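Risk register update: the risk of archive-format incompatibility is retired. Evidence:
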Amino acid sequence: MQQFVDDELLRAPLLFDQLIDGMLEYARKGLGQMTPVQRSTVGDLMQALMGQRMRLGDYFIRSLKEQVSAHFAESAPKSGQARSKRMTLSLVDEEVVAMDVELSHIIEAINSTAEYELRELQTYLSAMVGDMDVADDHNPLRPEVYARAVWAAAQALPLSRGHQLAFMRYAGTPLAQLLRTAYASSTSRLESMGIEPAAHRTLILPSGSRRGPRGNDTTFSPDLQRMRDTMPAPAAVQMRYEGQALRPAASAGGGGEEHWTEIVRGTSNHVDRQSVELVSRLFEAIQSDKRVPADVGMVISRLHGPAMRLALRDGSLLDQNKHPLWRFINRLAFECEMAPDAADPERQQLLKTAQATVEQLAVEPEQNNSLYRWALDRLESFLHKRLTRRLAAAASQIGALQKLEDKMLKGHGSPSEFHGMLDVEELDTVPADLLEHRPPPSRSDTPTDAWLDSLKPGDWVRLFLQGRWVRCRLLWPGERGEVWLFGDGASDATWAVRRGALLKMHAERLAKTLKERSIISSAAARVQDQVVSAA
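Archived output:
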């Protein structure tokens, strides 16, 4: 992989020279249709491109190398605490978002133009690192890496932010076309090295196994009450558990084994046996869900036995949307997903609390609904205290932002770095083939305050900031609704975002609320597929 990356970086200077030539050509073609003000703006940009070509190229190459180094550093095994303790605050306004919008357009243009070449290259890189299932994208030079390198080059321009914005708009289409050729060439070189693409290998599946048309990624949520009636007959259920024991995880600290043969034999009720079978299959499906991390799955697996006993006592267990057991599992998985780094102390503390709660549930001789309501309340209390600690740590920032918000509303905000060029119409008027081909938004799609006003402290959102997607939670909405403070889920970094910037991001589909995924629904869909296939 290192040899592949070094080879690609050696070709990067030539790619950037071709990018500048392509931008200049596009600009010259459009000069005849521009107004005098537009021609003046583009003329300044063209002159800077010709005079600063070497300097811009240096920034472009340096950014590529830094991003590749960061990629390999993230892929290396981590030790110790990964969460940064350095408090940082970035102010994001409409001008910063304008750059992020252009970054997203460039990434989208590359993905759409070079879609086939990227997919083909991914199979070769996966084979090179031993990922025969092409489960992840192992390309260190993905489209977003080149887009951020273009932004680094734009910042090297000795011109205003408005000219830098125009630079990025002119770079989108030429860069997408160049990378389409570059990715295809990379694939050819890997093929000449004798690497066999992973996706082209023949896989012989076991007899009777097949991939369903829908797969496991679905929003369909089967009804558990109806699914119970499709479970095997009581005799088959007993045979399934004959001689089996459900062993708690080694780290759970529990002792002994529970023999589910006794549970099945202990009831002659046909429906109860089917309920036990359904609950057991649901937990098995959760354990096989690749989107559930191993440490989270370890905690959830400890609930397998108690849930089967609960199924014999509580008929409401099959209400997957309301029962506290399923809500506890979904909530735990979601909060751990927001902090994906296993070395994160906050994540470790969350799992430690959840583990202690689950152990207490498992030793209770009588399983009932109220036990799991208590467990859910305990989890929510921990999450509330964690949010309170985060707010206390950001108290000084919140105080400073409140003063800034008051100044903004009094007309004393910071001057624009675009020198009035951001809203000038001529910057939006560039050759049509340089712009993203999407229909203009209808009136019903225009940004409103409804989405923003629906957010409350503690809500998780996904934002495209500084050329990358981040998952963060709302810490503080400004008292006057002008500045909103978000905290990164994977570090102690914070972002203060102006209201107008958030509305623009939401309109461009660069901001959305993250909803809790129901892993129970996914498990139910997987179990239903198994039952249908076996029928």
